[in-house]
Amino acid sequence: MAQTLHRLTDKQIAAAAAGANLNDGGGLSYRVAKGSGAGKWAFRFTSRDADFVAQQEARGSAVRQRDMGLGTYPSTTLAAARKKATAFRLMVSDGHDPIEQDRRAGEAGQKKALEDVKALSAAEMTFGRYADENFLPEMLPRFANAAHVQQWEATFATHAKTLRNKPLAAINRIDVLGVLKPIWETKNPTATRSRERIERLFSHAIQNGHFKGDNPAAWTQFDHTLSAPKKLTRGHHNAIPHGRVAELFMAISARQEGSMSALMLEWITLSACRTGEARFAVWDEIDLELMIWAIPAERMKMRRGHEVPITKRMAAILADVKVRQGAVGECGPHVFSEDGSKALSKMTALMFMRRLKGFEEFTVHGLRATFKTWTASETTFPRELIEEQLAHQLGAVERAYMRGSAVERRRPMMEAWADHCAGLEANEDAVNVVTLTSGRGA
Fold this sequence. Notes:
This protein has 18 helices and 7 strands. The chain has helices spanning about 10-15, 50-60, 80-95, 100-125, 125-140, 145-160, 175-185, 190-205, 245-255, 260-270, 275-280, 310-330, 350-355, 365-380, 385-390, 395-400, 405-420, 430; strands at about 20-25, 30, 40-45, 65-75, 285, 290-295, 305-310. The strands form 2 sheets. The chain has a 4-stranded antiparallel sheet, with helices on one face. A 3-stranded antiparallel sheet has the order 5-6-7. A hairpin with a 4-residue loop joins strand 5 and strand 6. The protein is elongated. The protein starts with 9 loop residues before the first helix and ends in an 11-residue tail after the last helix. Belongs to the 'phage' integrase family. Keywords: DNA integration, DNA recombination, DNA-binding.
């Protein structure tokens, strides 16, 4: 009777010639490739796996036989190959496909490995890292005001410092309360804004799969623990009476030598711009041929570009700035900077004004109100031109009649304002301007 299993011997395997195909029985075979002489073990079986059968049928094939590699000789000996084949025959007799089993096990292993990586990544994702890499890069570009950017950065770098190195997924209301409670009564506006910003970070993390559960910074987590937030109010900026502007300019002039802060404060006054717009002004925005300062939309509060006519005195200020920066070295990008490389501090102009005797109580931003009061009460310049100079949003009808920024129509108004600031009489021809109307015949 012919032997069905274990037909081969070690000597036959060792002596097998190139191209040989030796059958050990039970589906186990030894094949030697032509030319190379390298032998490989294979196990042939008939698959009844539903997935494999469906795949073959989809291809239009009736073939159910499959070959599974068991290793190469001599690293896999005859005895080792037989042991593997025996185990696979038992699997096949139970209706399993060893190849499909391996594939599914591999996919399950990959899935688990991916889940492990995600879990490890989640564990390594700290509050500070999420703020710096995910949340703030998305939030900060929305702000036109540089002060707002600095305030948001300070919240996550300074006020929430105790949270920065903690795993984001592990932070709870007690951790957030530890940030808020020490300053809740003494610095309530700061604490209130910090809580709101931290809440927004966790909302962002929840929606992006980095945090699970209720938001640990939501006000409902603290409304029975902390006192109600004090209402955040903002009063009007204290404005210098327009009759004292010439006096202010004399005080600035007396301290102007060697002071970039003084030059910037004068520029802010003459242009009626916001402090941030002057601080971050760069030379590329200045066109001395057209005598226009073109501020890009991304630096404006209303997110639209703004053109400011450069008056004769403003041009003189620019010339002075270039001389001072040139004495230090080559001019950098920033206009109001000691060497052009770094913008002056946001408090520079305000602190300079507070050091001027008789003007300590006033604010830099209030100078815009001073300009508006003077033009509205002491001149006949159109309201639309005044509002456009202040970069305020105009109504639809007003915008239609303005047809652009009307920078040249604003130039006489700003020269008249510069004369007033210098203590000179306003040019009568400049102030007698016909006001725009919104009638159809305009």
